[in-house]
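Supplementary Methods S3. Complex input for the uracil-bound model.
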Amino acid sequence: MNIHFNPAAIIRKKRDGERLSAKEIGYLISEYTKGNIPDYQISAFLMAAYLQGLDPEETTHLMRSMMGSGAMLDLSRVKAPRVDKHSTGGVGDKVSLILAPLIASCGVCVPMISGRGLGHTGGTLDKLESIPGFRTDLTSTEFERQLRKIGVAMIGQTVEIAPADKKIYALRDVTATVDSIPLIAASIMSKKLAEDLNGLVLDVKFGNGAFMPEYRRAKQLAQTLVQIGRRSGVKTVAVLTSMCDPLGVNVGNSLEVIEAIECLKGRGPEDLIEVTLTLGTEMLKVARIRAGAELLRENLEEGAALHKFREMIECQGGNTRIIEDYSHLPLPEHTTDVLARKTGFIYGIDSFSVGMLLIELGGGRKRKEDSIDASCGFKILKKTGARVKKGTCLSQVLADDRATAQHVAHRLEQAFSIKDRPPRHTKLVREIVK
Ligand code: URA
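Predicted complex, serialized as structure tokens:
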């Protein structure tokens, strides 16, 4: 960009509630990426954007500038429609592990670039890396080759996608500007739209275990994400799903891989299947495949999705024996039961605390550079609304170290609220934004 703007003048404009042009936003982002604008000026811009907001056009300009700061995948040689799914993050959310091979088994290409755990929420990459030998660091050439061969690949951000977002996210983290809907939307979409997609389905979580707990704000985020996708010519749909309870039974990296495989064998828990099939149906609609729901059920129940999962593990160097024999996965030695302290109904589960306790157990990171223990985790055996008697087993803590497991079990028990009356029912899939 050769037009020269004054960063302070752009910041002042936003501070005073005026709209910024594509060129002004583009200038700030590209010069910041090159190191020509200091952190303190971008911090001031972020705070002005946080307080004054960005309209849909400005948010789209910001997303495009961040996306354009790095590499864009070129998957034009892949013949099938390319559709991905992104979740805003939850506890026990292993949907991607099931959905990616399931959708690929229906003839749609799924180029999935995933992240690691963020705060209390788990990350798909960490789950995949509990499979011995599984490579998440494919080069872009290997990624494309695998997509053309089997229609699915799941990797981390090996190519430099949206470096501006990486720098800006680090600043937002320390300037209290993370929870801004336009900033979150631009950040998520700058990475997803660099994947050269035809369609994108977003799982926007609400509830106490979600990144954006309040439903009204989660819906605004969903609408903003969909608008940006549409403005960029990518068919985008957002599904609002509850993260009031952890999803499924297992929480923890290799435990979630096991539950995903059970689901691919047609034996998954109801809530996990409902979310997977809802998102999957939307992905197939975006790819213009009719009769999506029946095809998905058939491919889950008759093994086509499991076969695709096996192919993916094989292509990415993982040990496929884990599918038949879970003892090839890292598994913990001890199990500690968490018992109900009284009789009544489970009124709610503090999923945020469940996510934080997994970190405490060693299954998540306190700092970015921490290594994780893939084997440990929880089984959430009773969910909100269940009637329980005093002494009923609510949950299990699985860990190698018995003392840590007992300490965590005591705190996990406090995450379950038990009352004399049942709670109001919350729909798992609340709304679809198109
Ligand atoms: N995830 C992202 O990628 N960006 C945000 O700003 C928040 C969550």
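The chain has 16 helices and 13 strands. The two ends are 34 Å apart (CA to CA).
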